[in-house]
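Let's practice the habit of predicting before peeking. Look at the sequence and jot down your guess about where helices and strands might fall. Then scroll down.
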Amino acid sequence: MKDDRHHLLNGLHAWRDAHRDAARRSLQRRLQAPVLTMISIAVLGFILTLPAYLWILLDNARALSSHLDHEPRIALYLDATEPERLDTLEAELARLETVDRWTRTDADTALAKYRASLSDPGLLEWLEENPLPHVLDIVPAEATPERVAALREQLAALAPEATLVSDDEWVRQLNSLHALGLRILGVVAALLGLGALLVLALASAAELRERREEIAISRISGATHRFLRRPSLYGGIMTGLGGGILAAILLLTGIGISRAPLDAAASAFGLELTLRVPGLEDLLALIAVGVLLGWAGARLGSSYALRDAP
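Done guessing? Here is the structure:
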């Protein structure tokens, strides 16, 4: 039992020493070529920053829209010759859970307000009857486009003779634009991520090609692909870590630069906007994506280079 434990501990120490040696050799190679290392880190940092910055802007634009008064309303216009129908509809609305509240404006009240707003009320004396309809201005209980559309269908079934007008069209357009922006952002992020992956793979493959003689000698000594690939993987992780940290710095810098113009735009529209800054979790996720891309690129490039190596 003690021999098995001793053997296991020796194996763990050997595994730790092998990885430590691979990480050390990879770090030494990058310190020996600081310019190329910084270029790789900068390219990855720029690629990560762009979609992250666009995502923050989209998120803040959605937050800005929440400050606007976009409470959707549905108006029912009824014939003024049927005042009893208005009472019936109000009773029906009171039973609907999808309706939050409503405002009733009968035709006589609307005409009186309009007459009072005229500089010469006598202009309406020639009217033989009130041309204005009764109006029920209805506010849905939920402002989501789906709920508003469902309520509109309910009201159309309750009052087929009424003219129904809804002002939630621009809310649906706003949500559609936000969804489109997220879709475009996803495509851009995927293309940039693929580009970064290929760039890192080429850099890893080029590094291994420069070590062709060292790899050939190591293979004669019995080195496996896993052993030969390990320094490249650590190099990719280091590059990804550096690129992720640079992207986080650039992202915070870009948001800091954008704060003043966004505050000025919000003030111009009379809005109170607090620009959302990425939190620690967002920055750590950005760095993690950089590390993942660095590792995946190194894995792809090293596998290709070792396959073609003598």
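How did you do? The chain has a mean pLDDT of 78.
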